[in-house]
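Much of what follows relies on a compact textual record of a protein's fold. Think of the row as the fold of the chain written in a discrete alphabet. An example makes this concrete, so a full record is given next.


***
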Amino acid sequence: MRKTAWAVLAVIILAAAAGLAADQPRIGPPPLRTEAPTLQPSQNHVWIPGYWKWGGINYEWVEGRWVKAKKDKVWVPGTWEQVGARWVWKAGKWEKIPKGKPKDAKPPKAEGPEPRK
């Protein structure tokens, strides 16, 4: 009977530890690796850089790769962001390229004393 109770307790503790390990990490990812992309398969392909993925216990490197570009879209790589004591992965995505005339920049303010009136 005691062996069974200890076994059940051990299973519960291991399950709880596994649940915590799979949670969001408390430490930030290592620096990004420098990658040397292979030859571009065609002009229609864009390089998606590698990134660190949380594997439940530690970070695992996911290699960069070539993918076919999407019309009128640009790839925005994913990022790790610290939220409180945890690190959260914001996945990369394709974003639409804005069309039309870009907004004019405001001229910089002149520095120095105000002109006399």
In short: The helical segments are 2-21. The chain is about 15% helix and 30% strand. The two ends are 96 Å apart (CA to CA).
